[in-house]
Automatic annotation (TrEMBL):
Topological type in the membrane: Multi-pass membrane protein
Organism: Dorea phocaeensis
InterPro entries per the UniProt record, alphabetical: MATE_fam, MATE_MdtK, MdtK-like
Family: Belongs to the multi antimicrobial extrusion (MATE) (TC 2.A.66.1) family.
Chain's role: Multidrug efflux pump.
Subcellular localization: Cell membrane
Any Pfam family the entry gives: MatE
GO molecular function: antiporter activity; xenobiotic transmembrane transporter activity
Domain of life: Bacteria
Lineage: Bacteria, Bacillati, Bacillota, Clostridia, Lachnospirales
Keyword Transit peptide annotated: no
CC per GO annotation: plasma membrane
Descriptive protein name: Probable multidrug resistance protein NorM
Chief localisation class: membrane
Listed transmembrane segments: 12-34, 54-80, 92-114, 134-153, 165-186, 255-276, 320-343, 355-375, 387-406, 412-433
């Protein structure tokens, strides 16, 4: 089910295309949110802190793969908009083997260096074995994370944002059921929560791969294209590497913040683990809208419809600001109740720390919303390197301020460093966009 994004009402086209992507990514968040809820409620604060810290590590490593798939998706959508189906399929084949190879290598590195990685993260001794158990199991499913994201970005590039949603919905439901069975029923602890997630990833990754091969014959590359793979490596590598660096730098910065948070003890770790899940869930629609905007931009840029790209940019900025302002108000007002979803109300200190985080960062979601749009815009117009620059500014500011100020003034400075980084990156991104348009004019 392909959909051409180069015609029709700009606002309506983007919203209809983005809606399944937003819902799908919210379902994807349910993987770890379900773990967090059940672990926090049934296994205690120590297990919650371990799973939360492991989630940050998992997000960083899988972000490398997601970035590679995201970057290659920009190439597919460009050629789809250009009506060059042959070149699109050649790019697909090259990307599959390139990213698949990186996935296998990453798996080997993680399993070989797991103890070194946990030591670098400064995981407290009382949480070390819990986190190691969770990480060891969770990374058994990394190849299926690659499969889901590869085929998901491929289908989205040709305008099909609905099919990935179906597979995520099924796997999220399975994840919830298995979490309850493994953790509550069988008492398998954090390993059971990880196993539930891995089985769900197998369903989503394997399922969407089989569907695409059987139901989308027009996306199957021919054997003759294997000979042309080398011709496409440079282009795929440029887009994929830039997006992967952008994603991994972003999550590496978060990983460094996690290391600093860990130094403040179990209560802060547990609060941060719960608050980050709420945080991610709250601004995830803006992130996926930015990804949808990127595909819209790439298809129209490939079709030579630059005025439609400009109109889409204006509409996207308005939509994002309205949504993020609304979510900021909700999170600010409901912060204590949101924390109590994951944390026992009796744990007053953990809830208080989490509420403070949400009321500082949550008031500034417009900053991250605009940044997601900028990432999408620069990927879509063939300047993926600029997304890396913006990420370095955002995360560099965050990490630098947090490490300088938090040891002296407390954990609150970690929370304030995050929106400051967003604002600086936004200013840079819009300034560069205006500068490029002025030069072109």
């Amino acid at each position: 089910m392909k959909k051409d994004l180069t015609g029709g009402s700009v606002q309506k086209t983007m919203l209809l295309f983005a809606a399944p992507m937003i819902l799908g990514n919210l379902l994807q968040q349910c993987y770890n949110i379900t773990d967090t809820f059940i672990v926090g409620r049934f296994l205690g604060a120590e297990a919650l802190a371990a799973v939360g810290s492991a989630y940050t590590l998992m997000t960083f490593l899988t972000s490398i793969l997601i970035g590679l798939c995201m970057g290659s998706g920009s190439v597919y959508s460009f050629y789809f908009g250009k009506r060059d189906e042959e070149k699109m399929k050649e790019s697909m084949l090259t990307a599959f083997f390139l990213i698949g190879g990186v996935t296998v290598l990453m798996n080997l590195v993680v399993f070989a260096g797991i103890d070194f990685i946990l030591k670098v993260l400064r995981v407290p001794e009382d949480l070390y074995l819990l986190m190691r158990e969770y990480v060891w199991v969770i990374f058994l499913g990394i190849f299926f994370v690659f499969l889901y994201n590869y085929f998901s970005f491929l289908l989205r590039a040709v305008g099909n944002s609905v099919t990935p949603l179906w597979f995520l919905g099924i796997s999220a439901a399975v994840n919830i059921v298995l979490d309850l069975v493994f953790v509550v029923g069988f008492d398998w602890g954090v390993g059971g929560a990880a196993a539930a997630t891995v089985i769900s990833q197998v369903i989503s990754g394997g399922g969407i791969g089989i569907y695409t091969w059987r139901k989308e014959p027009s996306l199957r590359p021919s054997l003759s294209m294997f000979r042309k793979m080398r011709e496409n490596v440079a282009e795929i590598t440029r887009f994929s590497l830039a997006a992967s660096i952008q994603q991994s730098v972003m999550n590496f910065g978060i990983l460094m913040i996690q290391g600093l948070v860990n130094s403040f003890g179990t209560a802060v770790m547990a609060a941060f683990a719960a608050a980050v899940k709420i945080d991610s869930f709250a601004y995830m629609p803006a992130q996926e809208f930015g990804n949808a905007f990127s595909i819209f931009t790439s298809q129209n840029y490939g079709a030579g419809k630059e005025e439609r790209v400009r109109e889409g940019t204006r509409a996207s900025v308005r939509t994002t600001l309205l949504f993020c302002a609304f979510i900021s108000v909700l999170v600010f007002l409901l912060a204590p109740y949101l924390m109590m979803i994951f944390v026992d109300p009796a744990k007053a200190q953990i809830i208080e720390i989490g509420v403070q985080y949400l009321r500082i960062e949550g008031a500034c979601y417009c900053g991250i919303g605009l940044l997601f749009l900028l990432y999408g815009y620069y990927r879509g117009v063939g300047r993926p390197e600029m997304s890396v620059v913006l990420t370095v500014i955002s995360l560099g500011t965050r990490v630098l301020l947090a490490y300088i100020l938090a040891p002296k003034y407390g954990v609150t400075m970690i929370w304030w460093a995050i929106p400051i980084g967003w604002v600086l990156a936004d200013v840079t991104g819009f300034w560069y966009m205006k500068r490029c348009k002025t030069k072109k004019a």
